[in-house]
Amino acid sequence: MAFIISSINVNGIRAATGKTGKGMLEWLAGTEADVICLQETRATDEQTRTALAPALASGWHLSPAEPGAKGRAGVAILSRRAPRAVRIGFGSAEFDGMGRYIEAEFDDLTVASVYVHTGEADTPMQDEKYRFLSELGAHMKAQTRDFVITGDWNVAHTELDIKNWKGNVKNAGFLPGERAWIDELIAAGYVDVVRMLHPGVPGPYSWWSYRGRAFDNDAGWRIDYQLARGEIAGRAKQAVVERADDYHLRWSDHAPVTVQYR
């Protein structure tokens, strides 16, 4: 029996669930995922529960971590069954109160949802991003259980992960230091399961700017990852980016990244 994990930056939970016809609530009603990791809820825990009330009434369990600053960040995990344990943050005095990381235990597996902010090259925002990545990386390398960490990393790892890589070599999201950080995680035993299942091809992209015709031209970035370590990594058998059929059917500027594990 497959165990399915989805990850999606909702770009504001109230906006995503407020869209009618083909919004987030309709997607939730049709998904086969067992666990869904959310990023950028941009809402308090109470507001997130209110926005997801129809899904919670149908049986979903919600584990939220609200933003430390209004309208920024916020992560959560939806699951078909209640997790055995939930932890917010990874022991960081600087970042644990910002609503950027949450993890939940299900039997022998830990699933985490992370939001890494965009940053900006050669600014204090980028320095903060590197501090966050450093502390997060130490936490990831210390894991001993089967572990899947999903989310919006705001880093495109290789040239295959961004359509216009030549125009972004000096921009946040494709800086050498950011890309090297993912190299270090892979060297430490993590598997980028989407890339493992889609080797050597551009994308599949998971984020497209609302500007211009980026979505129509598939001029995107692959910045939403599922990184796995332990026995679970070898059980990944199918990965899809649930790209909307049309620009007007989008309920976020990201698309859900869904992986089936055997």
Please state roughly what percent of the residues sit in beta strands, choosing from under 5%, 5-15%, 15-25%, 25-35%, 35-45% or over 45%: 15-25%
Which residues form runs of ≥5 with pLDDT under 50?
A: none
Oligomeric state of shown chains: single chain
The shape is globular
| First and last CA, distance | 6 Å
Structural class: alpha+beta
Task: Give a short account of the largest sheet.
Answer: 6 strands, mixed
Family: Belongs to the DNA repair enzymes AP/ExoA family.
Domain Endonuclease/exonuclease/phosphatase: 7-254
GO molecular function: double-stranded DNA 3'-5' DNA exonuclease activity
EC number: 3.1.11.2
How would you explain this protein's 3D organization?
- 44% of the residues are buried.
- The protein is globular.
- The chain is built from seven helices and twelve strands.
- By secondary structure, the chain is α+β, with helices and mostly antiparallel strands.
- The model has no long low-confidence stretch (mean pLDDT 96).
